[in-house]
Protein backbone atom coordinates (compact mmCIF):
# COMPACT_ATOMS: atom_id res chain seq x y z
CA UNK A 1 0.00 0.00 0.00
CA UNK A 2 2.79 2.43 0.91
CA UNK A 3 4.62 1.80 -2.34
CA UNK A 4 1.50 2.75 -4.26
CA UNK A 5 1.96 6.45 -3.46
CA UNK A 6 3.29 8.08 -6.63
CA UNK A 7 3.59 11.72 -5.45
CA UNK A 8 7.30 12.58 -5.23
CA UNK A 9 8.43 9.86 -7.66
CA UNK A 10 9.99 10.57 -11.04
CA UNK A 11 9.33 8.39 -14.08
CA UNK A 12 12.21 8.90 -16.55
CA UNK A 13 11.20 8.75 -20.20
CA UNK A 14 11.36 10.96 -23.27
CA UNK A 15 8.06 12.71 -23.89
CA UNK A 16 6.74 16.13 -24.86
CA UNK A 17 5.57 16.70 -21.27
CA UNK A 18 8.98 15.78 -19.85
CA UNK A 19 10.66 18.34 -22.11
CA UNK A 20 8.44 21.22 -21.00
CA UNK A 21 9.96 23.99 -18.90
CA UNK A 22 9.52 23.11 -15.19
CA UNK A 23 8.16 26.60 -14.47
CA UNK A 24 5.37 26.05 -16.98
CA UNK A 25 4.51 22.69 -15.42
CA UNK A 26 4.50 24.07 -11.86
CA UNK A 27 2.28 27.03 -12.73
CA UNK A 28 0.04 24.82 -14.87
CA UNK A 29 -0.43 22.41 -11.98
CA UNK A 30 -1.56 25.22 -9.68
CA UNK A 31 -3.90 26.55 -12.38
CA UNK A 32 -5.27 23.03 -12.89
CA UNK A 33 -6.03 22.71 -9.16
CA UNK A 34 -7.83 26.07 -9.19
CA UNK A 35 -9.83 25.03 -12.27
CA UNK A 36 -10.69 21.76 -10.56
CA UNK A 37 -12.21 23.61 -7.61
CA UNK A 38 -14.10 25.92 -9.96
CA UNK A 39 -15.96 22.99 -11.52
CA UNK A 40 -19.31 22.17 -9.90
CA UNK A 41 -20.95 20.03 -12.60
CA UNK A 42 -20.31 16.59 -14.00
CA UNK A 43 -19.76 18.00 -17.49
CA UNK A 44 -16.78 19.91 -16.07
CA UNK A 45 -15.33 16.73 -14.63
CA UNK A 46 -15.94 14.92 -17.92
CA UNK A 47 -13.82 17.60 -19.61
CA UNK A 48 -11.19 17.17 -16.87
CA UNK A 49 -11.14 13.40 -17.49
CA UNK A 50 -10.50 13.92 -21.20
CA UNK A 51 -7.83 16.52 -20.46
CA UNK A 52 -5.97 14.23 -18.02
CA UNK A 53 -6.30 11.25 -20.37
CA UNK A 54 -4.62 13.24 -23.14
CA UNK A 55 -1.85 14.47 -20.81
CA UNK A 56 -1.14 10.94 -19.53
CA UNK A 57 -1.03 9.58 -23.08
CA UNK A 58 1.39 12.32 -24.18
CA UNK A 59 3.59 11.89 -21.07
CA UNK A 60 4.16 8.17 -21.87
CA UNK A 61 3.74 7.30 -18.18
CA UNK A 62 1.97 3.92 -17.88
CA UNK A 63 -1.67 4.27 -16.87
CA UNK A 64 -1.32 1.47 -14.28
CA UNK A 65 1.58 3.31 -12.66
CA UNK A 66 -0.47 6.50 -12.58
CA UNK A 67 -3.61 4.89 -11.17
CA UNK A 68 -1.88 2.88 -8.46
CA UNK A 69 -1.34 6.13 -6.56
CA UNK A 70 -5.10 6.20 -5.93
CA UNK A 71 -4.90 3.07 -3.75
CA UNK A 72 -3.23 5.05 -0.98
CA UNK A 73 -6.15 7.51 -0.74
CA UNK A 74 -8.93 4.97 -1.22
CA UNK A 75 -9.93 5.19 2.46
CA UNK A 76 -9.94 9.00 2.33
CA UNK A 77 -12.19 8.89 -0.73
CA UNK A 78 -14.60 6.51 1.02
CA UNK A 79 -14.75 8.73 4.13
CA UNK A 80 -15.32 11.84 2.00
CA UNK A 81 -18.10 10.12 0.03
CA UNK A 82 -19.78 8.83 3.21
CA UNK A 83 -19.68 12.25 4.91
CA UNK A 84 -21.17 13.98 1.88
CA UNK A 85 -23.87 11.33 1.45
CA UNK A 86 -25.09 11.41 5.05
CA UNK A 87 -24.34 15.03 5.99
CA UNK A 88 -25.67 16.89 2.95
CA UNK A 89 -29.25 18.12 3.41
CA UNK A 90 -31.70 18.03 0.54
CA UNK A 91 -35.31 17.82 -0.51
CA UNK A 92 -35.04 14.57 -2.49
CA UNK A 93 -34.92 11.92 0.26
CA UNK A 94 -33.89 8.49 -1.08
CA UNK A 95 -33.42 6.63 2.22
CA UNK A 96 -33.95 7.58 5.87
CA UNK A 97 -33.47 5.88 9.20
CA UNK A 98 -34.09 8.06 12.26
CA UNK A 99 -31.65 10.99 11.93
CA UNK A 100 -29.66 9.39 9.09
CA UNK A 101 -30.80 10.15 5.58
CA UNK A 102 -29.53 9.87 2.03
CA UNK A 103 -30.63 12.56 -0.38
CA UNK A 104 -30.24 13.02 -4.09
CA UNK A 105 -28.26 16.19 -3.44
CA UNK A 106 -25.92 14.24 -1.14
CA UNK A 107 -25.25 11.59 -3.76
CA UNK A 108 -24.62 14.28 -6.37
CA UNK A 109 -22.16 16.13 -4.14
CA UNK A 110 -20.45 12.89 -3.01
CA UNK A 111 -19.77 11.97 -6.62
CA UNK A 112 -18.30 15.39 -7.34
CA UNK A 113 -16.04 15.27 -4.28
CA UNK A 114 -14.78 11.78 -5.13
CA UNK A 115 -13.94 12.82 -8.69
CA UNK A 116 -12.28 15.99 -7.43
CA UNK A 117 -9.98 14.04 -5.09
CA UNK A 118 -9.11 11.49 -7.79
CA UNK A 119 -8.30 14.15 -10.40
CA UNK A 120 -6.38 16.20 -7.81
CA UNK A 121 -4.05 13.31 -6.98
CA UNK A 122 -3.53 12.35 -10.63
CA UNK A 123 -2.93 15.95 -11.72
CA UNK A 124 -0.43 16.55 -8.91
CA UNK A 125 1.36 13.27 -9.61
CA UNK A 126 1.92 14.22 -13.25
CA UNK A 127 4.12 17.14 -12.12
CA UNK A 128 6.54 15.01 -10.09
CA UNK A 129 6.41 12.02 -12.45
CA UNK A 130 7.49 14.14 -15.44
CA UNK A 131 9.90 16.54 -13.69
CA UNK A 132 13.24 15.50 -12.22
CA UNK A 133 14.19 16.81 -8.75
CA UNK A 134 16.86 19.11 -10.21
CA UNK A 135 14.41 20.62 -12.72
CA UNK A 136 11.82 21.00 -9.97
CA UNK A 137 14.32 22.87 -7.78
CA UNK A 138 15.34 25.18 -10.64
CA UNK A 139 11.71 25.85 -11.53
CA UNK A 140 10.60 26.68 -7.99
CA UNK A 141 13.66 28.87 -7.45
CA UNK A 142 13.02 30.77 -10.69
CA UNK A 143 9.38 31.36 -9.73
CA UNK A 144 10.36 32.57 -6.25
CA UNK A 145 13.28 34.68 -7.54
CA UNK A 146 11.34 38.02 -7.54
CA UNK A 147 10.72 37.57 -3.79
CA UNK A 148 14.47 37.79 -3.11
CA UNK A 149 14.08 41.56 -3.08
CA UNK A 150 12.08 41.32 0.15
CA UNK A 151 14.56 38.95 1.80
CA UNK A 152 12.95 35.59 0.99
CA UNK A 153 15.65 32.92 0.34
CA UNK A 154 14.26 31.52 -2.91
CA UNK A 155 16.97 28.92 -3.49
CA UNK A 156 16.83 27.52 0.03
CA UNK A 157 13.03 27.27 -0.02
CA UNK A 158 13.10 25.56 -3.42
CA UNK A 159 15.75 23.13 -2.20
CA UNK A 160 13.77 22.25 0.94
CA UNK A 161 10.54 21.72 -1.01
CA UNK A 162 12.27 19.49 -3.56
CA UNK A 163 14.04 17.43 -0.91
CA UNK A 164 10.76 17.03 0.99
CA UNK A 165 9.00 15.78 -2.17
CA UNK A 166 11.89 13.46 -3.01
CA UNK A 167 11.94 12.01 0.52
CA UNK A 168 8.25 11.02 0.43
CA UNK A 169 8.77 7.78 -1.58
CA UNK A 170 12.05 7.09 0.22
CA UNK A 171 10.48 7.29 3.68
CA UNK A 172 7.46 5.28 2.55
CA UNK A 173 9.76 2.55 1.25
CA UNK A 174 11.67 2.63 4.54
CA UNK A 175 8.38 2.33 6.46
CA UNK A 176 7.40 -0.67 4.35
CA UNK A 177 10.73 -2.37 5.11
CA UNK A 178 10.37 -1.75 8.85
CA UNK A 179 6.79 -3.08 8.83
CA UNK A 180 7.86 -6.27 7.04
CA UNK A 181 10.79 -6.73 9.45
CA UNK A 182 8.50 -6.37 12.47
CA UNK A 183 5.86 -8.65 10.93
CA UNK A 184 8.56 -11.29 10.49
CA UNK A 185 9.13 -11.00 14.26
CA UNK A 186 5.46 -11.52 15.07
CA UNK A 187 4.03 -8.00 14.90
CA UNK A 188 0.41 -7.73 13.74
CA UNK A 189 -0.64 -4.65 11.75
CA UNK A 190 -3.73 -6.03 10.02
CA UNK A 191 -6.08 -7.52 12.62
CA UNK A 192 -8.40 -5.59 14.95
CA UNK A 193 -10.26 -2.34 14.58
CA UNK A 194 -9.03 1.07 13.49
CA UNK A 195 -7.88 2.05 17.01
CA UNK A 196 -5.93 -1.18 17.47
CA UNK A 197 -4.28 -0.80 14.07
CA UNK A 198 -3.33 2.79 14.87
CA UNK A 199 -1.75 1.71 18.17
CA UNK A 200 0.17 -1.06 16.43
CA UNK A 201 1.83 1.55 14.20
CA UNK A 202 3.37 3.40 17.16
CA UNK A 203 6.43 1.05 17.37
CA UNK A 204 7.22 2.08 13.77
CA UNK A 205 7.81 5.71 14.71
CA UNK A 206 11.11 5.30 16.59
CA UNK A 207 13.03 3.35 13.89
CA UNK A 208 11.43 5.53 11.20
CA UNK A 209 12.58 8.76 12.88
CA UNK A 210 16.06 7.31 13.39
CA UNK A 211 16.23 6.34 9.71
CA UNK A 212 14.98 9.77 8.61
CA UNK A 213 17.56 11.62 10.73
CA UNK A 214 20.31 9.30 9.47
CA UNK A 215 19.37 9.95 5.85
CA UNK A 216 19.19 13.69 6.49
CA UNK A 217 22.67 13.63 8.06
CA UNK A 218 24.07 11.63 5.13
CA UNK A 219 22.49 14.07 2.66
CA UNK A 220 23.96 17.05 4.52
CA UNK A 221 27.45 15.47 4.51
CA UNK A 222 27.16 14.68 0.79
CA UNK A 223 26.15 18.28 0.00
CA UNK A 224 29.03 19.65 2.09
CA UNK A 225 31.48 17.26 0.37
CA UNK A 226 30.38 18.78 -2.94
CA UNK A 227 31.05 22.28 -1.59
CA UNK A 228 27.38 23.28 -1.43
CA UNK A 229 27.08 26.64 0.32
CA UNK A 230 23.62 27.85 -0.66
CA UNK A 231 22.32 29.64 -3.72
CA UNK A 232 24.58 32.68 -3.75
CA UNK A 233 26.80 32.99 -6.84
CA UNK A 234 25.76 29.55 -8.08
CA UNK A 235 25.46 28.93 -11.81
CA UNK A 236 23.53 26.27 -13.74
CA UNK A 237 24.79 24.01 -16.46
CA UNK A 238 21.37 24.19 -18.16
CA UNK A 239 19.53 27.50 -18.23
CA UNK A 240 15.74 27.52 -18.23
CA UNK A 241 14.42 28.87 -21.54
CA UNK A 242 10.79 29.20 -22.60
CA UNK A 243 10.36 27.55 -26.02
CA UNK A 244 7.51 27.18 -28.51
CA UNK A 245 6.19 23.99 -26.90
CA UNK A 246 5.92 25.84 -23.59
CA UNK A 247 3.77 28.54 -25.19
CA UNK A 248 1.59 25.81 -26.69
CA UNK A 249 1.21 24.21 -23.24
CA UNK A 250 0.26 27.56 -21.69
CA UNK A 251 -2.31 28.17 -24.44
CA UNK A 252 -3.85 24.72 -23.83
CA UNK A 253 -3.99 25.41 -20.09
CA UNK A 254 -5.65 28.79 -20.65
CA UNK A 255 -8.21 27.17 -22.95
CA UNK A 256 -8.95 24.42 -20.40
CA UNK A 257 -9.35 26.90 -17.52
CA UNK A 258 -11.57 29.17 -19.62
CA UNK A 259 -13.77 26.20 -20.53
CA UNK A 260 -14.14 25.26 -16.85
CA UNK A 261 -15.12 28.83 -15.95
CA UNK A 262 -17.69 28.93 -18.77
CA UNK A 263 -19.17 25.59 -17.68
CA UNK A 264 -19.60 26.89 -14.13
CA UNK A 265 -21.05 30.32 -14.80
CA UNK A 266 -22.84 30.00 -18.16
Automatic annotation (TrEMBL):
Signal peptide: none annotated. One of its GO terms (cellular component) is plasma membrane. It is a multi-pass membrane protein. Keywords: Cell membrane, Membrane, Transmembrane, Transmembrane helix, Transport. CDD domains: EcfT. InterPro entries: ABC/ECF_trnsptr_transmembrane (IPR003339), ECF_transporter_component (IPR051611), EcfT (IPR024919). GO terms for molecular function: transmembrane transporter activity. It is found in: Cell membrane. It holds the Pfam family CbiQ. The chain crosses the membrane at residues 30-58, 70-87, 107-129, 150-172, 247-265. Transmembrane (T) component of an energy-coupling factor (ECF) ABC-transporter complex. Unlike classic ABC transporters this ECF transporter provides the energy necessary to transport a number of different substrates. Belongs to the energy-coupling factor EcfT family. This is Energy-coupling factor transporter transmembrane protein EcfT.
Amino acid sequence: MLRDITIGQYYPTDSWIHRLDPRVKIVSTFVFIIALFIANRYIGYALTFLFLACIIAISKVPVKFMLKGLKAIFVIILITVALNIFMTPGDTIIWQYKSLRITGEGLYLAGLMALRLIFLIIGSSILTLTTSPIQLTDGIESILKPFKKVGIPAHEIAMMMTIALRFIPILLEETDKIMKAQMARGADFESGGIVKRAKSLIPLLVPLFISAFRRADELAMAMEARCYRGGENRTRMKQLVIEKRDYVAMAVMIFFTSAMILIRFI
